[in-house]
What does this fold into?
Amino acid sequence: MKNESKKKRTVGRVGVVFAICLAMVMTSAVTTIGTSMKLNQTIFSNRLSYSFEFKEPSLQAKNLDYTTIALSGCLAMGKQAGDPAMPVKMIQLLLPPNKTVSHINVIGTPITVKLGNVDLKEKPIFPQQQSIPIGSDEVPEFTINSNIYSTDASYPAARYSDYQVGYSHGYAILSFAMNPVQYNPVQGTLVYYPKMTVSITLKNVNNANQFFSNNPSDEAYVKTLVSNPEVANFYPMVGLRLRDHYDYTKRT
It folds into this structure.
């Protein structure tokens, strides 16, 4: 009975230490990502808040009819063939152990892009085209979504895409796409967000990390996948159930 009481006190202290540590990690050092974006991190006990900084995008005439747009650290793509190929930043963030996403909010103040001598009414943003398999001689038909290009509204309309939560080696990873540039085809205008802040409200979840094994090689690999690798340090501090290990080479 005495040992059980001691054990309970020990587990309780570990839980308290974890909660205190998670709450105390308030502001980390700035980490440079590529050449155009910085990540400022703030972690709270039930919320993650990150700010991403972007440089102004550049424009280039692709041919006589269209203009391409580029932003360092982003991929130019449309949601589907025919949509304007806009800069997209793929975001992957590590969630704390035993947590998942309840709500995401992305905010920022847009600034009008200086177009110079580029006229986006005459030469609109180049539309995403069908991908061609390597080695194929097929010449796909040029595709353009006339509905989007004739709409007096921002594209993309949202500042981020729908999110997904997946797992790698027992670590929970949040994935979504951020849209730092918006285009109005009718007005021929572009705006971009020098700074976008994503706030993630968390909620508790049970048995979300059943494949966690507290393996240093797993941790090292997962840290290469996300923009906030330091969150991985909290995983060994909680009572996650370790997955079973079997020696499949052993015969009976």
The chain has one domain: 23-237.
